[in-house]
Amino acid sequence: MIHYTVMPERDQASIESTPFHRYVLDDDTVWSEFYHSGDGYLLRFPKLADFEVSADGTNVIAHPVTAVDEATIEHLYINQLVPLALSRQGKPAFHASVVTVPGGAVAFLGKTGMGKSTLAASFALRDAAFLTDDALLIEESGGKCFAEPSHASLRLWEDSVEALITADTAKAAAISFSTKARLLAGNTLTYVDEPQPLLAAFALSWDDEEVITIDELAGLDRYMAWLNNSFLLDIEDKDLLTQHFEWTHRISEAVPTFALDYPRDYGMLPDVRTAVRRHVASIGIKE
């Protein structure tokens, strides 16, 4: 559980200390900075908001920058702060979209731009449902992994919206830092709000393949597919790192994991859906 508070707007004051971690976008723009603050943390999203996170990850306080809209702050909290705070609580969180298949769900692991949301939308529009767009939270029970549902919305670039989405699909308020559309679950995009057994994971790659390829990952490759797509709040905390490596190993061992590549052509998406479903069925995964 996380106790979340939004404070009144304020300007971002200078910070004298050096961030222990910084995330930089492809165009060299600083997206976020991580600072130690007392016994907790301060996460800064320049020109958007500061977030205070308690040492145990159970409390988050948002400090929006003046004139930043409520939808932007909510989006940052749901998609960035929640998985990071839960990682501090020792709960696994990964960069992935998740959709239903017969018997449970599958995850598509990948960083921003790999096509996770487009795949999730493609499934959710055709005889399936999505659980999450970008942050996979996992609960372990009885030796099995269960994917937890997240916010009932998907974010897509305009070309994906034009190719896949009908005009009657509900849209959420725009956010200030991205031109992606936020699409709400409903009659068009089907969403499931109950945990689902995680039957398999597919790590997305993009190697200009002309055909759909699915290859089993094993050993270090399988482990790294999960580790490279994990949320982690404090990369300097040795105890947390040890715990993080242990749970990532445990999950990578429990969930069959494959590399998935396919032509980034909207016309291929029906074939990708079929290939994923057939592959899960072929390996005899049971709920």
Q: What's the number of helices?
A: 6
Low-confidence stretches: none
Computed over alpha carbons, the radius of gyration is 19 Å
Between the first and last Cα atoms, what is the distance in angstroms? 27 Å
Summarize the structure in words.
This protein is an alpha+beta fold and 287 residues long. The chain folds into two domains: 86 residues; 190 residues, Rossmann fold (3-Layer(aba) Sandwich), CATH 3.40.50. Helix content is 26%, strand content 31%. It has six helices and 16 strands. The strands form three sheets. Strands 1-6-5-4-3-2 form a six-stranded mixed beta sheet, with helices on one face. Helix 4 crosses helix 5. It is globular and about 55 Å long. The model has no long low-confidence stretch (mean pLDDT 91).
Question: What can be said about this structure in brief?
Answer:
The protein is 26% helix and 31% strand.
List the helices and strands and how they pair.
Blueprint: E1 3-6, E2 21-24, E3 30-37, E4 40-45, E5 49-53, E6 59-64, H1 70-88, E7 93-101, E8 104-109, H2 116-124, E9 130-132, E10 135-141, E11 144-148, E12 153-156, H3 158-164, E13 181-184, E14 196-204, E15 213-216, H4 219-227, H5 238-254, E16 257-261, H6 269-282
Parallel strand pairs: 1-6, 8-14, 14-16
Antiparallel strand pairs: 2-3, 3-4, 4-5, 5-6, 7-8, 7-9, 7-10, 10-11, 11-14, 12-13, 15-16
Helix pairs in contact: 4-5
Which labels suit this protein?
single chain, 287 residues, alpha+beta, Rossmann fold
